[in-house]
């Protein structure tokens, strides 16, 4: 064969691994976070203590250029191996050669299944995009080449979970959602308060969000517990890109019981920070063209509060007069159908698995 698979912790693998995405994607669709990948490869990432990784690269023997890559991640006492950072030129034989090598290693190491794409951690990025490739990636979107789903399916992977991101238009000022409004009034009358946090209170609020997320997201596929200080480190930079009008925190008796976190759609700018992009981010933050609704959670003891939070966000979107994306909701979750009458289209994503 004209290709060879190399793997392990060495500079040749690292160089090819880091170089490949820039060769596959146009600038406006490249979502590689080079700094994160570099730190993971060198075991210097905040989350590196939680797992062991093995990077793989396929090299063209003639040109010595990388043509595919993948990272295998193991967690202690987990018999599932996670594959992520998958990239490949559009040749099935190369994908098969790579994933066959990955599968054999995982099986030899006692793993029973491959699951992914999971880029080392639930907290970094996971899932595979499968439609609407005519649109540039929005902030936080798992983005990949449009042929990856076929490559992976033909290599024996099947769908483990399915997710959607709802695309919402500009909301008319006369739009009225009876369910949202009713829930909002009910919770206000019970003494709840929903408001945007001040930037100076960001650390305190995120600590409370951490406590809710560790409970509410614990049954999500690929979820792994992390310590509070690691969570704060990962999400610390968010305070610079948030539009706090579009962040809502619900309080009951001075306790944080719910949250709704949105960001302006910066496309792929946050993944390649430099002086020029920093100023572009500031411009977008001051006048966003679209919002991405990334995270929502409600304490299990306060059912129905999600509708009240959504009502407040809906009012903000009306006033701002911009469209939005309700991002990355797993099938079966009630938030997937929020304001369903407004949904114009849906992005789709999958998490795949393969038994070894």
Automatic annotation (TrEMBL):
<protein>
    <recommendedName>
        <fullName>N-acetyltransferase domain-containing protein</fullName>
    </recommendedName>
</protein>
<dbReference type="InterPro" id="IPR016181">
    <property type="entry name" value="Acyl_CoA_acyltransferase"/>
</dbReference>
<dbReference type="InterPro" id="IPR039968">
    <property type="entry name" value="BcerS-like"/>
</dbReference>
């Amino acid at each position: 064969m004209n290709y060879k698979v190399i793997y392990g912790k060495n500079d040749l693998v690292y160089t090819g691994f880091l170089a490949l995405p820039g060769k596959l994607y146009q600038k406006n669709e490249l979502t590689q976070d080079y700094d994160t990948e570099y730190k993971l490869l060198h075991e210097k990432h905040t989350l590196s203590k939680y797992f062991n990784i093995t990077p793989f690269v396929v090299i063209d023997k003639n040109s010595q250029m990388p043509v595919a890559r993948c990272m295998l991640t193991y967690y202690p006492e987990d018999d599932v191996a996670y594959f992520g950072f998958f990239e490949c030129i559009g040749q099935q034989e190369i994908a098969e050669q790579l994933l066959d090598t990955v599968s054999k290693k995982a099986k030899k190491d006692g793993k029973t299944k491959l699951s992914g794409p999971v880029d080392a951690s639930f907290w970094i990025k996971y899932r595979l995009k499968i439609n609407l490739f005519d649109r540039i990636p929005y902030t936080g979107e798992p983005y990949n080449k449009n042929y990856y789903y076929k490559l992976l399916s033909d290599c024996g992977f099947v769908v483990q979970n399915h997710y959607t991101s709802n695309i919402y238009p500009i909301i008319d000022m006369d739009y009225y959602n009876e369910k949202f409004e009713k829930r909002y009034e009910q919770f206000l009358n019970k003494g709840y308060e929903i408001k945007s946090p001040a930037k100076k209170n960001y650390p305190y609020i995120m600590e409370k969000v951490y406590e809710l997320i560790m409970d509410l997201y614990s049954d999500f596929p690929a979820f792994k517990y992390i310590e509070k200080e690691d969570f704060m480190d990962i999400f610390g930079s968010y305070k610079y890109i948030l539009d706090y009008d579009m962040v809502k925190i619900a309080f009951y008796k001075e306790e944080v019981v719910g949250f709704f976190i949105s960001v302006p759609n910066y496309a792929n700018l946050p993944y390649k920070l430099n002086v020029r992009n920093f100023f572009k981010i500031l411009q977008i933050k001051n006048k966003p063209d679209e919002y991405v609704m990334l995270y929502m959670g409600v304490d299990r003891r306060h059912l129905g509060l999600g509708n009240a939070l959504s009502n407040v966000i809906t009012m903000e979107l009306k006033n701002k007069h911009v469209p939005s994306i309700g991002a990355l909701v797993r099938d079966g979750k009630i938030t997937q159908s929020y304001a369903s009458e407004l949904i114009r289209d849906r992005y789709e994503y999958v998490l795949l698995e393969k038994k070894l």
